[in-house]
Amino acid sequence: MAFSVKAGFRTDRGKMRGNNEDALLVLPRFSIYAVADGVGGHNSGELASRKAVTGIERFIEAHPIDAVYEGDDSNAALMDYFLTCFRDINAEILSLSRSAVYNSGMATTTVVAHICEDRLYIINIGDSRAYMIRDGGISQITVDHTVVNKLISSGKLTREEARVHPRKNEITRALGAEDEVLPDFFVTKLVRGDRLILCTDGLYGEVTDEEICRIAAVPGELNEICKSLVERANKNGGRDNITVICVEIE
Fold first, then answer.
1. Are strands 137-140 and 119-125 parallel, antiparallel or unpaired?
2. Is the pLDDT of residue 241 over 70?
3. CATH code, domain with 79
4. 101-106: long-range pairs with CB below 8 Å, 24+
5. Angle subtended at Cα 217 by Cα 187 and Cα 2, rounded to the nearest 5 degrees
6. Which of 55, 115, 196, 221 ranks highest by number of CB atoms within 10 Å?
7. What's the number of domains the chain is made of?
8. Which domain holds residue 155?
């Protein structure tokens, strides 16, 4: 079953940052959507996130994704496809990081969504998130690659404690951080009326999941919903760059 898909998006530097180190990608013709959140000194974080999204677009243009579905196991083929994409980008960012002192330590989180008929594919590394809003509820698809999430998983920290923990922004995986790339891959069935939210931690760090759901679940134009989410994050503090993509399944 094939659905029609539409998307809205918004990015904002927030109230505390001098520049925006987030980046986003919306490629409706390939049903590809992505957000990235760069880290690094000077403007290196901004460079890393932009290399991620332009790298994804360049890879898809050079390697048509439709060809992936020709095999018997499209899930495994798509995993290999996006893993190769992430490896290429990782190598490029690492090369830039090692070629100049001012780029040292640059890296970026990345979460990518791809929709094919009634299936949603998510690949992510770092702590940018994918949420599913369905039937008035919200669920987080991705798992944060962070120090605090490891502490939560081991029972040493509650989610409430994690929101104010001094290491809450410390990621354990990213593109450009290490030679090896270890993304997660998720596949889920879609139903009509689903809304997918891709966002950086500038959104969910200021706005609770319940509040994201309340704003994003209401009927309305998707760019306006993204605008409302960004405005809420800024109202709640705006301590980081904020990027959000909202995708609706019709």
1. unpaired
2. yes
3. 3.60.40.10
4. 102/41, 102/42, 102/44, 103/40, 103/42, 103/44, 103/47, 104/40, 104/41, 104/44, 105/39, 105/40, 105/41, 105/44, 106/38, 106/39, 106/40, 106/41, 106/44, 106/45, 106/47, 106/48, 106/176
5. 45
6. 196
7. 1
8. 5-249
The dihedral built from the CA positions of residue 195, 196, 198 and 202, taken in this order, carries a sign that is: positive
**How big is the chain, counted in residues?**
250
Q: What is the tens place of the pLDDT at every residue in 36-62?
A: 999 976 679 999 999 999 999 999 999
C-alpha 120, offset from chain centre? 14
pTM above 0.90, yes or no: yes
Tokens matching residue 234: 């800024």
Distance from C-alpha of 181 to C-alpha of 108, rounded to nearest angstrom: 12
Whether residue 25 contacts residue 141, with contact meaning beta carbons closer than 8 Å, is answered with no
pLDDT at 86: 98
Strand pairing partners for 159?
A: none
Q: Mean pLDDT across the stretch 119-134?
A: 97
Phi, psi of 30 (to 5 degrees): -110, 0
pLDDT of 106 > 90? The answer is yes
